[in-house]
Amino acid sequence: MIEHFLVGFALLLGLSGGYLIASTRWRGKRSEQPQQVHQILLPFTGTEISRRALDAALRLAKAEQATLMPAYLAAVPKQLPLECAIPAEAAKAMPMLEAIEQRATGQGVPVDARVERGRSYRHALSRLLDHESFDRVVVSATSTGAAGFSGDDLVWLLDKAPAEVLILRPGPEDHRVLTA
Amino acid sequence: MDRGHYKIFLGMAAGVGKTYRMLQEGHAEAAAGKDVAIGYLEPHKRQETSDQARGLEVVPRRSVAHREVEVEEMDLPGVLSRRPDLALIDELAHSNPPGLEHGKRFEDIADVLAAGIDVFSTVNVQHLESLNDRVAELTGVRVRETVPDSVLGTADEVVLIDLTPEALVARLRAGKIYPGENIQAALDNFFRIENLAALREVSLRQVAEEVESKRLTLHVPEPLGTREERVAAEVPRAVGERLLALVRPQPSSQRLVRRAWRSAQRLGTDLDLLWVKPPGKPIEGDVERQVTALRQLASVLGATLLIEEHDDLVAAVARVVRERGSTYLMVGESLPRRGLGRLREPLPQRLMKATPAGVDVRIVAHRGGREEDG
Questions:
Q1: What is the pLDDT of residue A176?
Q2: Chain-chain contact of A86 with B138 (C-beta, under 8 angstroms)
Q3: Lowest CB count within 10 Å: A104, B178, B233, B321, which one?
Q4: Which residues on chain A are in Cβ contact (under 8 Å) with B302?
Q5: Average pLDDT of A8-24?
Q6: Chain B contacts of A116, Cβ < 8 Å?
Q7: pTM greater than 0.95 (yes/no)
């Protein structure tokens, strides 16, 4: 009787020990995993956006269950106050954001859009970096610079962005753009 | 002494014929027996304008030294001592050189009016302070000489000198506005058809608003009993529309804002965004971020974000609708009602009942999932 009790107790002790060791190792492994991505920033300018950049951002957002943050960057002329209403720029931005949201929603990706003003695209991006938090930035380095970002801008972004920056190299599909 | 009658001729750009029309009306007044004198005229070397001025007495200008140059300005004391029944004073937005009685010509005009002299004057729409930024953005040209919008409000009459962009360009090409060597540069810059069309729209709207505000001022209702009744009676009976969109600090509200803005653009009207915040709930964390984003979006679009703390959404909306004179209400799609919620009337119906008759309610479908009621 006592032997049965001792065997049962030893078995219980062994199982508990095994569970403790396994759960500690699993917790350790989990802490080594990369931090979860919540927001993916997709800055753009003008009335079109590279389909490659948008599709890449959407794929990442979907895989990581993140929110896509498309951000229209508007350059405000120097003769206007920086915080003034910009209906002409808004008329370009709103249909673009609508088109992006439509595409994102079709793929089940939540969207939280922004419009940021600055004296230049870089200045607008800098202001956005100052007050928004995101974990990844996706930009397209087109050979024509049509996306509004020059090589210098991209180097600057790599230096300043407090997040992982994904720059898509120019590709044959760059002529495919999303327009409103 | 009664203040003089003040009439302003407003135009969308140089060359539409403001000064010409002012002189025409001056002649008509003179023919009717009034003593009319030109206080200041700027013919801009336009032959038609100079011809039209013939036959009207001109109060001589005075010479003023400014930055080592002699400039000719309106002689305010001269106009006051001449004391005509009606003074024609061109370009009210003009800035006077230092040392004169006032810094701006519209202030000189105020003195003339105060002396009981009627005044006809002219101004272009881009000189109005509140429109200066908008016009600069539309046309890429910013004028330095601005006047407060209230100047238009002090006028007894505002006459819009309207001309189609095509007709104005034709006048320019014919050399009726600028001399030959400046025509092409003007056509390539300020006088582009799209610029002129935008300016024309701004001018028409400005005068419509001016007429509307005057009409409202003239028909102040008798004070009524309760505050609600007084507010309802004072609702601006707008000729145009005014949109109010109900938002919440959530990313999905941005679509509603975009839709509302597009409708506001089509109707050519102002847009207000309203968030009815539950009382006692602090604005922090994600809510704060979303409120900041909404505020930023409103600022970019030229809309006004209103935050009202109230525990009754419908009552708060009804009050804001009355106070802002909204004629159009846009709301997001509601969550399908469950349980006892099914017994309650849907939000759009409750809003329609609570708001003044004639306020339309539009439901904007949510693209993704469904949103909660309220």
A1: 59
A2: no
A3: B233
A4: 85, 87, 90
A5: 66
A6: 296
A7: no
